[in-house]
Every structure is written in C-alpha cells, then in structure tokens.
C-alpha cells in the first residue's frame, strides 16, 4: 500500500467552531464527516498559541524554544530541519500549498520555497499577492470585499490553494507523498463570497461563566490585555456582530474548500492518512479577552485535531499535542524518528484508541511578534496540561492552576489552594523536567522558585547539567568541552577541567 499523507490546516479555528465538537450551530459538514470516519481528539494543545511558533512545532517536531521561532517573523536557523526536508531526503515527495509563516518575513512570507518542498506547488501568501493587480491586492485585505456583489470564490486564497492541492493529488496519486494544505482562512480579513458572508448574522455564542470572569484573581497581564472590556457587562462581551458573523462565515467557507480536497482524496486515494488541525484559536471575548496571547485557556490553546486512517468514529480524551504530529508522520511513512524530535508518534493510538500516548502535554509563549511593540511585549509562559488539570507559569507575573473537571470554563484560579498543592507540585515538577529535557533556553531557577512552591530554593547552578544538542542526521556529533572528542552522553553533570584543577 502506498504511504500517502495529507495534512490540512486552517488559521484561527476554535474547537467550538466545528459542529463535530458539539456546537450544532456551526455549519462544517465536511470536517464533521471526517470526524465521523476517523478520530476526534478533545484535548489537543498547540505548542504556542500564535501563528509562526505553532507552525514551527508542527513542521519541525520541536518546541518553539528549541527551533528558535519563539515569536512571529523570526526565521528558523539553517540547522533546523522541517519534516519536508527529512522526508524528501528519504525519497518521499513533499508538497506544501498555502500559508507558511516560518521564513522570517512579514505576514505574507517571502514567496520562496524552502528546502524539502516541491517548488512547483509552493504557494504562500506572497505568491497569491503576486497574482493580483494592485487594486485586487487592496481588496484581498479588506473585509468589505466579502460583501461586493461580484465576489466569487475564485478570487479567494482558499480556493486557489484548493486548486493547487487537487492538482497535486491527481498528479501524484500513484506515488508515496506528504502534502500540506495550509489555509489562511478563517483568519481576518475573512474574505468569503455569498452565502457564507451573511449566514451567521445575529449569531452569538452561548453565555457561560468565563464571559463573567472579572480577572481579579488572574495575572495582571490579562487584566491589562482586557482593556475596556474588563468592566463591560456580559451582554456587551458576547453579542452578535458583523465581524463575528463574517469570521464564522469564512470558517464555513473554508470547510467547503476542504470538502473539495476530501472529495478528491475519497475518489483517488481513499486509504490515505488525513490529518486536520488549526494553529490556534481566538478568545472572542472569553475571559474578557480578544485574539490570542500568553494564556493557555482552551479557547486559543486547545485546538481541533481530527485524523482519518485508523479507527473510525472514535473520540480520544487523553492529552495530545502538535509536537506529536511530526513523529507520527515519520513513523507512518517508515522513516526513523530522530532523537532531536521532542514529541511521540501517535500511530499506535490512531490504530487503537485505547492506547495512551501522553499523561501531560506542554504549551508555551514568549512574544506575539517581533514587529509589534504592543500585545504586551515579552510575556514568557510555560504550561503543563493533563486531562483534568492545567498549570500555567507566567514567569514575570502570577501563576494559574485549574481543575478543568470541576471548572471547565477555567474561571477559578487554584494556584494557592492547599487542597491541590500535591497535584499542582507534581505537575510543576513535570513542567520543569520537560524544560530540561528539551533544553529550553529560557530555563532557570525562576521557574522553580514560585511563591507557592516553598520547597524550591534558588541555586546558581540550577540542576548542574550540560545538555548538548543531538541532531546527528544533519550535523556531526557535538564535542565534549573537556576533551574535544565527540560527546559520549548528551546530558551529563557539567564539570570542566578548570573546576577540577
């Protein structure tokens, strides 16, 4: 059987923007059908809830703090290899159609195909703009374009991405391949034609306790982020608006475009592995916050993940993470998973949903974007999440701990609760260990010595280890500082000849 994988991504799709995740008001028939025919993950977390860093984890299999894309508009280093490069080097044809956001350019990208991907099918947003007249470029960035009578789906980025992806599928249906289709939609400006542009007029989400969160027991940065919304009544935070209606309409439009691709898959390569996810969500007024930033709230961090190609019609509640997508793809294709990857293959779980891959998953934040002075600037956050609990360490602020079983809306911050101290501290230890295991360049005693963790004392040596990089597929083994010879153990106590003498 051919090894064929299609990864489909959208930008800024929350779980509750899909009907299959329990919101019948959302019109997403194609993704709902995909979930019926595959596996739906309830507790999948992005590695950083902002575009570039989220994508960096998906396509390198390493956290943003490892691959260097800790904020938007920072490029990966030359020694950071994507899954496209790894597969291409193993004779697997790799196509990438759509938004990339990993080349260090601005929002649209550089229009240049990176190593490991088929140049003929490369189509980032700069390529799309290059096809447009100057007048059309402006129209493509204005929400009002969606209401122009002459607008058709042919004009949209989503439709043109689908066309290229369909051409790739028809052309290479008899070969092994990995294809990514990365839509910008439903991200603003939410360009979509009728009837999608007006189909959600009058819609609002169901009221819930997190719209009433006054943030009084939350980090100061959240209070600052909320701005004027902090004092607004719930009916002002959760209400119908033209902007929300267009956003959700664009979400249904991109579901339609995804349906075009799924139809071709069903006709040409029905046994292919199909993966759908989104990079992050949007707060949309929950907790009195808008857009995304350094929080681990489920509205932006707990994203949809649907996989077809294993068991059918199943739901998995175990924690899952974007960090596991790359090793899953490699194992499925039959390429050895290198040591440097920081996730685990989910393939066994896809075949048997009773298998548990993760007890805990991790997410992080460093900065929203290099270009922006706003959005809070530097906001260093690390979080550890289980099926029931969530610990969020805000390095420059106060921390958070939630029991999501009793408090699914994450309103009650239990960080100082004696009742949960043992569970909180155990999760804290796992977070610190993950920072060490992944060589988090921001690790230090400050993460351990929190006001609520009295047993942790600062030390200049921290844990006292050196943790050298292992990437022997593309680099020679790093050298031991003390000997100049290739290191024997990547992790070892740091003792130098100078200290010995």
Automatic annotation (TrEMBL):
Keyword Hydrolase assigned: yes
Disordered: annotated span: 460-484
Highest taxon in the source lineage: Bacteria
One Pfam match: Sulfatase
Coiled coil residues, start to end: none
Annotated PROSITE patterns: SULFATASE_1 (PS00523)
InterPro entries: Alkaline_phosphatase_core_sf, Sulfatase_CS, Sulfatase_N
Gene3D superfamilies: Alkaline Phosphatase, subunit A
Sequence intervals crossing the membrane: none
Stretches assigned to the Sulfatase N-terminal domain: 4-335
Keywords, ordered alphabetically: Hydrolase, Metal-binding
Composition bias type Basic and acidic residues, residue spans: 460-480
Recorded family membership: Belongs to the sulfatase family.
Protein name, as recorded: Sulfatase-like hydrolase/transferase
Organism lineage: Bacteria, Bacillati, Bacillota, Clostridia, Eubacteriales
């Amino acid at each position: 059987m051919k090894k064929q994988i299609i990864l489909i991504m959208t930008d800024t799709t929350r779980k509750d923007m899909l009907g299959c995740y329990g919101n019948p008001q959302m019109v997403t028939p194609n993704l709902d059908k995909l979930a019926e025919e595959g596996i739906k993950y309830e507790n999948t977390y992005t590695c950083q809830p902002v575009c570039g860093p989220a994508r960096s984890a998906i396509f390198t299999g390493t956290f943003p703090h490892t691959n260097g894309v800790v904020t938007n508009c920072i490029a990966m280093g030359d020694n950071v290899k994507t899954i496209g490069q790894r597969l291409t080097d193993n004779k697997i044809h790799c196509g990438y159609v759509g938004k990339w956001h990993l080349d260090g350019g601005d929002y649209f990208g550089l229009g240049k195909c990176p190593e490991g991907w088929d140049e003929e099918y490369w189509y980032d947003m700069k390529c799309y703009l290059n096809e447009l007249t100057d007048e059309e470029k402006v129209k493509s960035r204005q929400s009002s374009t969606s209401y122009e009578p002459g607008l058709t789906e042919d004009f949209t980025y989503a439709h043109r991405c689908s066309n290229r992806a369909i051409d790739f599928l028809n052309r290479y249906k008899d070969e092994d391949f990995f294809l990514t289709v990365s839509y910008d939609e439903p991200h603003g400006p939410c360009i979509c034609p009728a009837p999608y542009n007006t189909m959600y007029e009058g819609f609002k989400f169901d009221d819930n306790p997190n719209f009433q969160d006054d943030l009084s027991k939350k980090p100061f940065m959240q209070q600052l982020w909320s701005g004027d919304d902090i004092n607004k009544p719930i009916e002002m935070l959760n209400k119908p608006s033209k902007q929300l209606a267009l956003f959700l309409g664009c979400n249904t439009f991109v579901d339609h475009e995804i349906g075009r691709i799924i139809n071709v898959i069903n006709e040409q390569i029905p046994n292919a592995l199909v993966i759908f996810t989104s990079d992050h969500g949007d707060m949309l007024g929950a907790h009195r916050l808008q857009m995304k930033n350094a929080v681990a709230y489920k509205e932006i961090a707990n994203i949809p993940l649907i996989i077809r190609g294993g068991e059918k019609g199943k739901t998995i509640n175990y924690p899952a993470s974007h960090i596991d997508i790359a090793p899953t793809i490699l194992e499925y294709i039959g390429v050895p998973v290198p040591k440097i990857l920081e996730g685990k293959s989910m393939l066994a779980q896809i075949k048997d949903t009773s298998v548990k891959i993760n007890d805990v998953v991790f997410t992080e934040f460093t900065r929203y974007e290099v270009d922006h002075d706003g959005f809070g600037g530097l906001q260093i956050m690390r979080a550890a999440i289980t099926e029931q609990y969530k610990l969020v360490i805000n390095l420059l602020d106060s921390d958070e701990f939630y029991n999501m079983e009793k408090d699914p809306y994450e309103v009650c911050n239990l960080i100082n609760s004696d009742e949960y101290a043992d569970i909180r501290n155990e999760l804290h230890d796992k977070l610190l260990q993950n920072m060490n295991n992944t060589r988090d360049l921001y690790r230090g005693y400050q993460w351990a010595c929190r006001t609520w963790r009295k047993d942790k004392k600062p030390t200049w040596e921290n844990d006292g280890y050196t943790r050298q990089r292992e990437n022997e597929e593309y680099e020679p083994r790093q050298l031991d500082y003390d000997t100049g010879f290739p290191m024997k153990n990547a992790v070892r106590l740091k003792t130098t000849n100078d200290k010995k003498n």
